[in-house]
Amino acid sequence: xQAMKTRSPSSLPSLPxxxxxxxxxxxxxxxxxxxxxxxxxxxFLGHRxxxxxxxxxxxRMQCGExxxxxxxxLTPGSPYRYGExxxxxxxxxxxxxxPFEERIVYRDAHILVADKPHFLAVTPGGRFLHETxxxxxxxxxxxxxxxxxxxxxxxxxxxxxxxxxxxxxxxxHALFRDRTIxxxxxxxxxxxxxxxxxPIYRSRIEESASxxxxxxxxxxxxxxTHIRLLQQHGTQAHYQLHPVTGRxxxxxxxxxxxxxxxVNDRFxxxxxxxxxxxxxxxxxxxxxxxIAYVDPLDGSERRxxxxxxx
Length: 310
Hints:
alpha+beta
């Protein structure tokens, strides 16, 4: 079941504090009830989440695990009220464990820097809930307000910066928004393209018609990457990459377009069939090696490096 976070009606206030606590590192999901004519809340939930059996919602309600923004426990017979915000725990049956461990690189009163292994999603979504970096870290640290300031693909390993202080969070988001943070990646590639790539590569990347994939198209560039060759091993090449912009799948798309796809990339240049299981022996050879920036709170220079290797 996907966590639903629909936009609240414009007449309603901002999201209230969750009336349910963290449960094994998982924060409650929420849903603003849209306009509709439903005999009761249970009927609506059965329609909104067809993959979840109505008996499961009934069980959760009986356990007090579905509440409104006022903290009131909702029952199967609770009336449907447009504009109400309901909170509940997302559940996934038979979630497969990811057999790799994350590491906490740094933590202070404002941020936490984690070193993420391959195959671990940053945040819950789809078939991943407990086996995500965010939930694992919340379970380890007890930091209820922990949230990533940026993202990495599930297949990519390396550094992820988190905020756990609401008062300073905007300052760290601004580092990425204003492109004042320096991000260094490394990639191992193989392919028919030339080893000597342009030191600066710009292209336009947009969503493709295929699910989840991005594609280069003609037009004004919206993605820029600086490229430096580190080593060559036969047909393979090891590059250092500095993405100036942060388009989805930017490095993977651009290297594939240059004829140097990243080793073990399951999406570029060609996608594997949907539903193909992960092969833990063949991780994507892409690593978020380092991040560096001037601390927006005290002006000190910060640099963190991943301990993972390709």
